[in-house]
Amino acid sequence: MNRPPRSPTTKSASPTKSASPSRASKKAAASTPSSRPTTDSSELSEQLKALRLPLFREQHPLIAEQAAREGWTHLQFLSELATKECQARHQNRIERLMRNSNLLAGKTWEQFRWSRLPLHVRQQFETLRSGAFLDRQDNVLVFGRPGSGKTNLLCALGDQLVRQGRSVCFTTCQLLVQELLRAKRDLRLERLLKTLHKYEALIIDDLGYVQQSREEMEVLFTLLAERYERGSVLLSSNLPFSKWEQIFKDPMTTAAAIDRLIHHSVIIELNLLSYRLEEAQQKKDAQAVSQESKPGSEES
Hints:
Order of helices and strands: HHHHHHEHEHHEHEHHEH
Strand content: 5-15%
Number of helices: 13
Number of strands: 5
Number of domains: 2
CATH superfamily of the largest domain: P-loop containing nucleotide triphosphate hydrolases
CATH topology of the largest domain: Rossmann fold
Radius of gyration: 37 Å
């Protein structure tokens, strides 16, 4: 007996469950910030201290007030703070370089009597003050009789170089060779040479002014050989090259030292009278004029 086929059972579609209003509102609230970030001035100050931004830490409240008054954008506010921080760091670096330079106090570019120098020498130093010769590791050799202004001239140039952010070390030849000799005896000469190599410009004043021993000149030659084409030497001497054998005690050492110095160098000769003698003569002349102008100074 055949059974009739069953009719397909139609299932009623179950209604789609709608999201709960409370859940939807919670998701929307989670995706939207509930409030702006809070600003804790004390916490910000400590953060700037940790980041080593002292000027940011000191100036940001005042600059923030100015920015609010003048309607600055966030970028303008940040740029102003960053500019002041960079300026302060640059100034601090210049002051640190000046302290470490050992340059003679008061011997600045502005205080040097440029009128004493010939025009071509003034032009040479105008070119040197840019500091471009340091990038080429060129040397500057200044010759002249005692009192011609060699020391003051190199200090004035060193002052300008430091103000441009260049590292400079000033020393007399006598003090330098004594320090080199002590370092050699203490087996730390290599360390001292590396320390001196950190300076872009090494000013050695009065080479040959005081006679040195052969041992002292040997360590000085070691320094000159070490700095050859690695760092600039600014040197003053009252002795011409023809008399440098008196300094280095040996013809071959003398020739080698001169060769290393004059290669890539600017040589300046100051054919001037002693400025000390000039000042003494000027004072003497002024006193004579003053004496003559007093009443009763002339014979009746």
